[in-house]
Structures are given as C-alpha cells and as structure tokens.
Predict the 3D structure of the following.
Amino acid sequence: MNVSFSSKLAALRLKKSSVLCVGLDPDPSKIPVHLLTDSTLSSAVVRFCTSIIEATETVAVAYKINFAFFEALGDSGMSALREVLQAIPETSLSIADAKRGDIGNSASFYAQSVYEDLGFDSITLSPYMGKDSITPFLSFANTCSFVLARTSNPGGADFQNMMVDGKPLYIHVASKVEQWARECQGEGGLVVGATDIESMVHLRTSFPKAPFLIPGVGSQGGSAKDVMDAAGSGPVLINSSRAIIYASSGPDFAKRASEVAHQTQQDLGS
Amino acid sequence: MNVSFSSKLAALRLKKSSVLCVGLDPDPSKIPVHLLTDSTLSSAVVRFCTSIIEATETVAVAYKINFAFFEALGDSGMSALREVLQAIPETSLSIADAKRGDIGNSASFYAQSVYEDLGFDSITLSPYMGKDSITPFLSFANTCSFVLARTSNPGGADFQNMMVDGKPLYIHVASKVEQWARECQGEGGLVVGATDIESMVHLRTSFPKAPFLIPGVGSQGGSAKDVMDAAGSGPVLINSSRAIIYASSGPDFAKRASEVAHQTQQDLGS
C-alpha cells in the first residue's frame, strides 16, 4: 500500500481513537509460568507475544518488538521474532526496536534486513555515527525511522542534554534528522522519552510535524496527560510495555493486558 | 582463563608481533562466486569466513564479526555467526561488532547474549543513551566493551566533533567511559577511526592506557604508519576488513587474504 507512515498513523489514530503502542519485551523471567511448561522457551515467547497482540489489537495502533529479547533466545530468536511480526494485524503498525547505528555499508544491510526481508513499517536508530548511518534507512518509502533524540532512561541525560552552541544535543540531532529526511523517500521520526516533559515540549515546539515515538509511560513513570499535552498535537505513538504485558503473570495475563491497554488508551485520549 | 582483555591483548601483540584485527564483513555480492554454487548462502558465508580465519590466524590478534551481515541472512544468521565464532582460535580475541546501545533492561539481555551465550571477548557499543546502556556490558570480567568515540565514517563528524564546554563530544564520551569502567569488572575501550588522526592523538594523549579499536585502515583510507604513531603507544587493535577479505574474488581468495594480512601487519609494525 503506497501510503506514508504518517498517513497510516493518522488514519489508525482516528479509527481506533488511540495513540497507544504496545511494547513487546518478552523477558523469560516474567512471562507467565504456565506458558513455559511443555514447550521450548522460544515457542513460549511466541505464544506469549501473539496472545498479547490478539488481546490488545483493537486499541494498539502499533506494536514495538524489542530485538534484545529475541536475540537473547539464540539461534531460534530470529524465527521467533518473525512469527511474532506476522501476528501483528494489517491494522496496526510494526516497529523494530533495534536502535541500530552503523556505517553506511553495514547500515544498508540492517535496513535491508528490517525493511525488506522482515517487512517492518518502522525502526529505532541511534544517531551517534551521523548521516550515513541514518540515510540508508530513510531511503525506504512508506517507512518511518525513529532516531533517538531524548531518551527516557536515567543515562539519557549524560550526553543528550549537553549544550552545543546554546542548544541541547538532542535538538541538534532532531534538526539533522529533519534535514536528512527531506532528501529521502521515507520519514524521519524522533524517540522522545516521557520522563522529561520539558525536553518534549522543546522538541514538539521545534518540530510540530515530526512523528514522535514516546516510551517511558507506565513502568518508567511518565504521566499520560502530561505527555499528550506536550506532544499530542503532532503525530505520536505512545509506548507502554511492561505495565501492559506483565499486568498479570497468571493464566489471565491476556485478559489483564487487554484491560490495562484499554485503561491506558482512555488515560491518553487521542 | 581469568586474565583481563588488555593482558591477553598485550601477550598476543608480543607473540604475533601484530596489532591486526581482521574484520569479517561477509557481503554476499563480494564473496567468491565459486563458494556460492551448490550450497546455501549461509553455509557459503560460513565457509568464506572460516577460510579467511584459517588463512590469517598467525597474524590476526583479533577477529571482528560484523553482526549486520549475519542478521541479513535471516533465520539462519545467528547459527552462521556462531559457527564463525567457533572457528576463531584460542590465540585470537573475538569482537562482536554490534554497536548496541539500549536501556538497562534491554542492555542486560544483549550483554548476556553476547558475553555469556555466545562467549565473545568484546563488543562495540554506542554511547548515546548514557551510563545505564553501557554498564551492563562493563560488568562482565575479562571482557572489553569498545564504545564509539570518534568514528571513521563521513557522518562521524556530524555530532562527535560538536564542542561542549570547550571540548569535542568524543572526549566527553571517552571520559565517561573511563569513569564508568573504574566501577566495573570489565574494561572500557574506545572505537577511534583511522581517518581522523588529529582526534586520535587527542584521545591517546588524554587516555594513554585505554584499549583502542581502530577501524578505517585500508579501504577507508587511513595510513598504517600515521595510526601507529598516533595511538600505538597504548593498547590497540587495528582493524582491516575489505582490503583483506576481498583481496581476491577467485579461488585464491584465502591465499591473497593471507598475503594482504601479512603485508598489513608489516606496514603496521607492532
């Protein structure tokens, strides 16, 4: 379908009255114990993730698959990831949360892997290596590559808030991403953590039309209302992972995930 | 073996009179055509890489496996990577060139995957997300986590050279890595591109004992002598990938790789 990522996102936001992205971070020590009996860890992870997807798809505008947890599965990780990806319905967007950032040649291989072979709609990228680490991803039409700008983790402030010519580094990163995306067929988005609302306001004011992927609502502590007030005027995907997927560790995990996802949708509004 | 990465590196440098790291970047469009007949792409990649390892191990102090090229192989990529890793002899160090950089929880999974499950000696990391994205790797004893400081690609200058409080960003990154590593069991190293000798001198002067992983000699254009003059007084691994592994695309590829590796070793000195 020859439609831009932002257009799909806008249509889904309207259709589902939601900006919720459900993050799939399947930690073997946290997934319900009953799934782990009589199956391999990989198949338990697949069953866990597909159940979460089925239970939340009416409110999830997107799913973000965290590559770390699949790579930790070893040789069977990539096929498990592919199975989970295939379970995401056409009516939700898919995000490869891989935080890639490598030189042009390697970046092209990563981009091919994620956008062509796997067929994700979107990926997360790290900006430290600059333009030629980002543009191989931006060159894919109808995708959105979300570049880390201001992240929600405690170490996010270590470098991202450093002042360069009177502006924090994350603003310089966002400016470059906007500039590079203008020359490409795909869209450039920004990862903006929910734990620093001041930076989020600064970014939204400077980049009113950039798609924001916002982690850090829920377990990491950002408030839904503050986040929507700060960034909701533009395209947003607000990610919640652990608060939804680990809402229960019992046999009712999918039902509870659905309830928490619906509650989060209501808290967020759209 | 309970020996630090730096100690192993120093012993190997002495034993092999070499600081050469051979980079394994198996691009399907460049590996010898005769390997691609009657086998799958993954098995051809494994055969190519293991042949290169056998042909160069007397001069290669380390091998750097570029994850991008294995991920691009799809489902069989991880087992191919594991086979190549197992072909690296005890007398060479292994580096997972994965440029990871994610929040604490995900970082722990990546660290477990690379250091425990796969058993690499070392990894490359991206610093943008700060302390809690790096320390889960630094906590593994007898390993060295190389953090991107000043990279050799054209976009390396986009952010890394930005001035913060009178110093370039890459110096701030290096200072933080040194500080974080002091609190951990593993070592922190720096990725320093061979294409910017001035930055390399600045970094070596500031961090005389930090292990440097130096890509960009050979195809990317840095001169061997300049690099050794700038950084060779401390622990170094100087990586060459394409100039060695693609020295020939014919049936003599391994022999030619060996010749170029030996020539590179001689150019570098030790």
Summary: The first strand of chain B starts at residue 20 and ends at 24. Chain B touches chain A through 55 residues (CB under 8 Å).
